[in-house]
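Notes to self after the Tuesday call (sharing in case useful).
The group wants a holo model before anyone commits to mutagenesis around the pocket. I volunteered. Ligand is NAI. Logging inputs and output together so the record is complete.
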Amino acid sequence: MNSLIEPKVRGFLCTTAHPTGCAQNVSEQIKYVTSHAPIALGPKKVLIIGASTGYGLASRIVAAFGAKAQTIGVFFERAADDKRTASPGWYHTAAFEQAAHQAGLYAKSINGDAFSEAIKREVIALIKQDWGGEVDLVIYSLASPRRTHPQTGITFKSVLKPIGAPYSNKTIDIISGRLSTVCMEPATPQEIADTVAVMGGEDWTMWIEALLKEKLLAKTAQTVAYSYIGPQLTDPIYSKGTIGAAKKNLVAASKIIQQRLTSIHGKALIAVNKALVTQASAAIPVVPLYISLLYKIMKEKGLHEGCIEQMYRLYVDHLYRQDGQVSVDEQGLIRIDDWEMREDVQQAVAALWSKVDDNNVATLTDFVGYRHEFYKLFGFEVEGVDYTAAQAVEIPIPSLKKP
Ligand code: NAI
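Result:
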């Protein structure tokens, strides 16, 4: 099918994606990495769980193009059919694999439910067949609204709600830019437990245990999962809300995994990343308005970063430092949200937050930048792409047998 592809946005989701725009996104990220110093002490064989968009995709690009690592990426994406384009992560991966293969780099992908035992088995079989083991970095970057437990078959749904008390604050419609007040009732104990079951650390632990059992991790292997803390402003809906409870569970899981890895002298780490426009963060009420203000301030101060800049910094300044040390805060967390959390940045954001309304949103915030980044996630509004040209939508991912 060749067609003109336009964005179709529903709520915080775009149901179409543009293959050429997505490919261009990937090539911009590769260009960023290859224009910076190579990561001399970087990883060699990297498994990325949640590898097709956002932080996971950027982690894969940095590993491959910054450290010449072989990568296996796991994700859950939709191929194109007669009626629909593929999902953006599908097109991103197609473009990533093509570029990696052209550069002579091993890159294979597995598309399916990473929470399931079947996908874990498939990944393990591929690692055994192609690498014979020796995975030295496992990135865990899943963001999912639901998880079916592999042992009980129960499906849990995550919710984005406050805990303990209702919460209301300003929020922004990510397309119209109109402000409104969102009021949320606190989560029930069941909703909190379900969100922890989806976005907490149980599945990460299962992955590492499965890899350890099969002796597929190299000596001194590292594993990293991603978290967010953010300012007081978003505390009720993030850090102190249901997603925050899940992230606390993720941190607790890192300690359990750390113990499991002692026999191979490995490390289990949590990196606290910057708030960025991704499909996952667009779904959280209040956060898009916060990000619109944050972008404004960080751009003005010359501190703005996207996923690729963040992930390059994670590898170079933390995971693969020349001195072999990982720099962490007093709680043992890697903080690449350090620039976001700088006092001057947060003070400026908080000052604007109290003033922002429908009349001044265009000038006080970088909402235009937010919306542009949102469209870019799906391959739209990408510089250099001719959106008036009809375009094939069925693009194969080279390592997957069928699109
Ligand atoms: P994203 O929505 O861009 O990416 C999610 C990835 O998970 C995709 O590759 C998707 O295919 C994969 N995925 C989802 N369900 C799956 C399943 N069942 N099986 C296999 N793959 C599945 O999300 P984003 O924003 O990059 O988030 C990744 C991690 O980073 C999350 O833990 C998130 O909490 C964290 N983080 C995000 C921040 C942000 O502002 N976006 C800030 C700090 C941390």
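Two things stood out.
The chain has a mean pLDDT of 96.
The first helix runs from residue 19 to 34.
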